[in-house]
Amino acid sequence: QVSQIKEKVEEKEGIPPVQQRLIYGGKQMVDDKSASEYGLEAGATLHLVLALRGGY
Fold this sequence. Notes:
Radius of gyration: 12 Å
Strand order of the largest sheet: 2-1-3
Distance between the termini: 35 Å
Protein name: NEDD8-like protein
Order of helices and strands: HEEE
Helix content: 10-25%
Shape: globular
Number of strands: 3
Largest sheet: 3 strands, antiparallel
CATH architecture: Roll
CATH topology: Ubiquitin-like (UB roll)
Strand content: 15-25%
CATH superfamily: Phosphatidylinositol 3-kinase Catalytic Subunit, Chain A, domain 1
Domain Ubiquitin-like: 1-55
Structural class: alpha+beta
InterPro entries: Ubiquitin-like_dom, Ubiquitin-like_domsf, Ubiquitin_CS, Ubiquitin_dom, Ubiquitin_ubiquitin-like
Organism: Colletotrichum phormii
Pfam family, one: ubiquitin
């Protein structure tokens, strides 16, 4: 599950999953889909974008 990948990122980097946007192959990955649904293979590169709350 993509949500499990986000949990691993939180363990290593301290970034809460709610702030993470994982991109693979130009598409944002959805939490409840499996990595295999995106064709993700070992050694693949994911892009992490932080979704930060705006405001003044």
